[in-house]
Each structure stands twice: as C-alpha cells, then as structure tokens.
C-alpha cells in the first residue's frame, strides 16, 4: 500500500470551473485531503503562495508564472498528454482522465520539492558549524522584528570573544571550533523564549533579547558574562578566554544598520574594560558629541587644559586590615555630560592613539599625588596605574618614566603598573623585554583582571609580575556558583606557588571578604573598603593610620 504524502496547500489558478470540480473529487479520495484554495487571479495566488506554508501552484497553461525562477513547485493542468515537461514545471495533470494514483504521485513529488526548498532556505540562513542562525538570517530577523513591533522592548547584543585567534594559533582550528560550540551551548542555556542567538562571524555573535521586563537585560548580561568567564576544556586542557558584549536598546524608527552600529560601539567600550564584560550603549555620552571625532577633539583639549582628574581606590591587606596601596583611575569632568568614567572615553582614546599622552598624564599626576601623600606623612603606599598596551609599545616609555620619577623624587619601588592578560600575551618577547627594563628601575607589575584572558601560569612565570588581580566577575559569582569558588581558591593557590600576591577585585560584601580570607587571598579592593575617591576625600581614610575595621 502506498503511503499518503504530508499535507500541502494547493493553490488553483485556472479559468475553467471544471478543474475545481475534478480536483475536489480526486482529493476527497485521499486519506488526508489537502486544502484547495481557488485563486481568481495571479495577484491573489501570489499572496497565498507568500504565506509560510508549503504550497503547490496548480495552473492552466495560460495562467502559469512566466518566470522559471518561481520558487514554489508548479503543476501544469492540461487537457492532453505532453511529450516533455515544460521548463519551470515539475509535473502535469491531465483533466479528462484525472485519477487518484497520478495525483498521489504528483503530490508526493511536490512535497519532496517543497522539502528541498525549505532545506535550501534554512541552510542559507544557518551557520554550518553551530546550527544557529547566521549573519544573513539574523539581519533578516532583526529587520522583521523592528518592522513588526517598531523595536519596542527589544535589545540587540553583539558579543565578541577576546583573543580567539590565539586559540586557533596555539591549539588548532578544530579546537577553535570545539570552543565555539561550547560558547554557543553556554549562551543557549541562559537565553529564554523570545531571545534569539546567531553567529555573525568566526568569533562574533548576535543576540536579540526580550527587554519587556524591567532590569532583565542587566541581569541576563551578568549571567551571560558569568557563564562565559568559567574555564573551557579542550583536549584535556583548561583555558579561560575573555569576551565583550555590547548592548543597545532599539528605538522607534531605528533601522537595523543603525542599531548594529550602536551595539558595536557598546561592544568596543566593553572591550576596553578587559575580561568578560558588558556595556549598554549610553546615549548620554553620544548625545552632545556628533561623532567620535568630536569626542576625540574634546578629550585632546581636556588634556591640554589639564581638565581631567584622578580618583583613587584603596587596596586593603586582609591580614592586617591596613590600606597598603591604591589604584589610580582617571575621570573626565565634562562640562555637558557630567563626570565620565573610563569606559565612556578610553575606547575612543585607544582607537585614536590619545591613550599614549593620556597615559603619561595619569602617571605624572599619580606620581605627584604620591609625593604629596608621602610628604604629609601617610606612610608607605603602593600606587597602581593601568598601562595600556599601546602605551607599552611606545619607544619613549622608559625614558619618560625615568624623567617623571626623577622630577618627583619618588622611590620607583612604590610605583606599580597594572597590565591585562591581553597585553602580556601579545608580542610576548617585546613585552618581556620592556617589563624587565622597567623592573630594573624598581617598578613592579600586577596582572589585572586575571582569569578573563587567554594565558597560562607557565607563561606568567617568565615575567616579572608580583601580583595577580582576580577579576570581579569571579568574585561576584563565588556564592552563586560553587565552581567559581573552587576556581578562585585554585587561582590563589597556584599564584602563591609562584610566589605571587593575590588581590581580589570587586569585593562588595562581608561574606565575600570572609570567603577570600579562608581561600588565602592577600589583598582586596572594592566598594566594601571604598569606592574610588578624589585625593582630598581619600585622605581621611589614610589619616586613620590606614587601618579599617573589617568583618567577614
């Protein structure tokens, strides 16, 4: 017995009423009759064929589509046998002798053609490795969503993996593919109904997120960054890789290209923070500046006028409860946009090259303030300054630093440069040479945001690094994710085996402090101790003998 085909929607386009009667009679003999729609004209037939249902066009010769590129299967309705199949037609039915078996065969073949069409369409919009939507399909989906609901309650995310090329270079492209599959699996596990995920390129992903619930995007972004920050396992090896997520709210009337542009700006701002971080596009930052070029000109003028300022966040020794150091963080008091944090202008400074003079301004100001603190009798404090990789490449770095230290008369042993994993992994021979030359002056180094880049303890052991700073994303998740707590404990143990001190960043609660104390961390930094403060507001903390009463 021949099995019946799956249901198809049949669209009939024929002038003669007899064809409707013949088809209705023959279709009624099938176990599962297919719906038959009679179209009075070509425009009506096209409207039905455009609906997302597998359809077959039944047309008399005079009404058949002129183009052979018509996407849906076309069956020609004729009054006599044909000698060959006309172009653009998959089969024909003969009216006077229409019988069940030829009709059944015709519909089965049409079903196969519909399935093939669906597969081709799906593959054209599907990433071959992961099976999720590709860039073409995602752009079409985004345009549809913006058209359907004017972009209300919709957020676009652009996610980029940091240093993914290093994974391919070090472990091979097959390992890179396996890493991509693990990333996709983690993202899918956190997304919900209404969210969509796509692979836009080799290590770039797109997300369409439902923002109908207040605060959901921020909570989801935190979860995504937390799960992606955990170690990956490839061929028995553990590695950690950073990522950057840029988010942008859709606005009424916005088109897809504009929204992509905003999300990519946010992604670059997230990338400046290092580690697994996210950033939601801030319209306030860009509202007054017509372009990034305008913002660049404003920052250049601010540097010339000395309009920037430094805030300092203290670091606490867990064992003694004393402030033993502080990190210098630049702020921009903008006349129109208020006090701007680094992530609101550092990405632009990195791209434009302004990060080099900006970095020297920060070093000079930090040394001046350190000299002032020492002269006021606050005692011994390490001053930590973030050093950009672009500044690290500057041929005048060593000479400029020697001059600034001499001008201020500061012992260079109290100056500390914070480098990211990304910086120390790039051009490692050059980096090691520069670090050794600076270390010879007495400057020490800390590795910022440890655990969020692609690095290894073996590589780090070859560099003159004194401290590891565990990224805030791991500290935040210690209580919620037991595996993160075990990972932090392991990081601290391995760092101590290499003779390194450990600083935990982003400590905001007494429970976190207590857990880090039990794990053996040496220092902590975060809002539990103090937020970043201008020097004048920091002095009262230091005047208490550096000691804070801590519980945990």
TrEMBL record:
It comes from the Bacteria. Signal peptide: none annotated. Residues 152-283 form the GGDEF domain. One of its GO terms (molecular function) is cyclic-guanylate-specific phosphodiesterase activity. SMART domains: EAL, GGDEF. InterPro entries: Cyclic-di-GMP_PDE-like (IPR050706), EAL_dom (IPR001633), EAL_sf (IPR035919), GGDEF_dom (IPR000160), Nucleotide_cyclase (IPR029787), Rev_trsase/Diguanyl_cyclase (IPR043128). Coiled coil: none annotated. Transmembrane segments: none annotated. This is Bifunctional diguanylate cyclase/phosphodiesterase. It comes from Stutzerimonas marianensis.
């Amino acid at each position: 017995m021949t099995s019946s085909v799956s249901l198809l929607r049949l669209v009939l386009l024929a002038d003669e009423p007899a064809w409707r009667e013949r088809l209705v009679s023959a279709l009624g003999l099938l176990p599962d009759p297919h719906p038959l729609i009679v179209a009075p004209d070509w425009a009506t037939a096209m409207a039905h064929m455009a609906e997302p249902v597998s359809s077959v066009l039944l047309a008399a010769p005079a009404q058949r589509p002129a183009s052979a590129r018509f996407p849906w299967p076309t069956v020609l309705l004729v009054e006599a046998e044909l000698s060959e199949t006309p172009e653009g037609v998959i089969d024909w039915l003969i009216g006077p002798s229409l019988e069940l078996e030829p009709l059944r065969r015709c519909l089965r073949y049409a079903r196969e053609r519909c399935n093939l069409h669906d597969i081709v369409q799906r593959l054209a919009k599907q990433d071959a490795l992961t099976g999720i939507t590709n860039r073409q399909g995602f752009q079409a989906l985004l345009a549809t969503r913006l058209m359907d609901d004017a972009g209300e309650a919709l957020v676009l995310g652009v996610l980029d993996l940091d240093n993914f090329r290093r994974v391919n270079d070090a472990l091979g492209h097959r390992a890179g593919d396996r890493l991509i599959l693990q990333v996709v699996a983690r993202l899918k596990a956190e997304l919900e109904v209404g969210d969509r995920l796509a692979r836009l390129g080799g290590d770039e992903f797109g997300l369409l997120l439902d923002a109908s619930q207040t605060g959901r995007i921020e909570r989801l972004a935190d979860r995504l960054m937390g799960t992606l920050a955990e170690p990956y396992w490839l061929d028995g090896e553990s590695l950690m890789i950073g990522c950057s997520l840029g988010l942008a709210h859709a606005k009424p009337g916005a088109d897809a290209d504009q929204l992509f542009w905003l999300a990519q700006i946010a992604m670059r701002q997230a990338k400046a923070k290092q580690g697994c971080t996210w950033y939601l596009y801030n319209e306030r930052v860009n509202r007054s500046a017509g372009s990034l070029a305008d913002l660049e000109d404003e920052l250049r003028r601010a540097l010339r006028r000395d309009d920037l300022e430094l805030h300092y966040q203290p670091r606490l020794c867990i064992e003694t409860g004393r402030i033993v150091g502080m990190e210098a963080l630049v702020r921009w008091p903008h006349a129109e946009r208020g006090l701007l944090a680094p992530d609101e202008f550092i990405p632009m400074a990195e791209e434009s090259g302004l990060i080099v003079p900006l970095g020297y301004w920060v070093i000079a100001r930090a040394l001046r303030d350190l000299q002032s603190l020492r002269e006021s009798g606050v005692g011994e404090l390490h001053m930590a300054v973030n050093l950009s990789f672009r500044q690290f490449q500057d041929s005048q770095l060593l000479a400029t630093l020697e001059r600034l230290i001499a001008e201020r008369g500061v012992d260079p042993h109290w100056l500390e440069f914070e480098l990211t994993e990304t910086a120390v992994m790039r051009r490692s021979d050059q980096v090691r040479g520069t670090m050794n030359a600076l270390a010879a002056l007495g400057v020490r180094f800390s590795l910022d945001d440890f655990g969020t880049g692609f690095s290894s303890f073996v590589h780090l052991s070859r560099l003159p690094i004194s401290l590891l700073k565990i990224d805030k994303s791991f500290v935040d998740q210690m209580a919620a994710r037991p595996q993160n707590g075990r990972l932090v404990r392991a990081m601290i143990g391995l760092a101590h085996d290499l003779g390194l001190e450990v600083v935990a960043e982003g400590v905001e609660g007494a429970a976190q402090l207590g857990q880090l104390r039990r794990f053996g961390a040496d220092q902590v930094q975060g809002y539990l101790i103090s937020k970043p403060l201008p020097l004048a507001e920091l002095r009262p903390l230091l005047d208490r003998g550096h000691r804070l009463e801590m519980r945990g």
